[in-house]
From TrEMBL:
Domain of life where this protein originates: Bacteria
Biological source species: Thalassococcus lentus
UniProt xrefs under Gene3D superfamilies: 3.40.50.2300
CDD domains: REC
Location of 4-aspartylphosphate modifications: 72
Protein name as it appears in the record: Response regulator
InterPro entries: Bact_response_regulator (IPR050595), CheY-like_superfamily (IPR011006), Sig_transdc_resp-reg_receiver (IPR001789)
The Response regulatory domain, residue ranges: 23-136
Keywords: Phosphoprotein
A Pfam family hit: Response_reg
Keyword Phosphoprotein on entry: yes
């Protein structure tokens, strides 16, 4: 279904906005990553809607039918691969389904679940974003002629990164089982990688390795929690 402008006419893609007329549902728990998607959609002409978990995405899809769905593999209430499988088997089918993750191994998981493509985080390149979506769309959705693409990277709002840190702090305070700890470790590792926060990414990865090796977690966990609080207190600038 095409989006209509205020005059009721179908909006056609252009050389500078090849995704004009498309609606992209981004299923993403990171506000920083989602802000990058917002900027990429804005530069490309697409409308964006956001869901931060599987439950929210399924509720959204009961009401709206987006053209493209981009699904993070690591979500707070389960794996994005499950939603990819559901959408790939649905009839009518969403025109393009893409998985996304900071873990390159998740590309195989996404494609096995039925995705049409994959976006590796961090996603900051307009050409990479547009190409991934256009390649997944049916031929009739391809914009005619050459495209004019800016190579300037998108820069998400730093406030969105602090929002992610607040979310991580809440989860760390309320961790009650191994699955919750696994979630917050992968969340922090992915968000830190997207933001170029090497110190936090290394600390989150060290915690994950300690858990995988069966070593005591208290020291690594305290370091991660302290780094999150530093970012919430603006003691470190990105």
């Amino acid at each position: 279904m095409h989006d209509l402008d205020e005059f009721g006419t179908i909006r056609q893609p252009t050389a500078t906005r090849p995704l004009l007329g498309l609606t992209v549902l981004v299923v993403e728990d990171s506000r920083f990553a989602c802000d990058a998607m917002r900027l990429l959609c804005l530069r490309s002409g697409a409308r964006i809607r956001r869901a931060d978990c599987l439950k929210s995405a399924r509720r959204h899809l009961q009401v709206y039918r987006p053209t493209v769905v981009i699904i993070d593999l690591g979500l707070p209430d389960g794996s994005g691969a499950d939603l990819i499988s559901e959408l790939a088997a649905a009839c009518p089918r969403v025109e393009a389904i893409l998985g996304t993750s900071g873990d390159p191994f998740c590309e195989d998981v996404s494609m096995a679940a039925g995705a049409d493509g994959f976006l590796a985080k961090p996603i900051q390149s307009v050409p990479v974003f547009q190409n991934a979506i256009l390649q997944a769309l049916p031929p009739g959705r391809q914009p005619p002629g050459p495209r004019l693409v800016s190579n300037d990277p998108v820069i998400p709002d730093p406030i969105a990164y602090r929002d992610d840190m607040a979310h991580a702090a809440d989860v760390l305070d309320d961790r009650s089982d191994a699955a919750t700890l696994d979630y917050v470790m992968q969340f922090l590792s992915g968000v830190a990688r997207s933001a170029g926060d090497n110190t936090l990414e290394e600390a989150a990865n060290a915690l994950a390795h300690a858990k995988a090796d069966g070593r005591p977690l208290s020291s690594d966990l305290a370091k991660v929690a302290a780094l999150v609080q530093d970012r919430l207190s603006d003691r470190i600038a990105l």
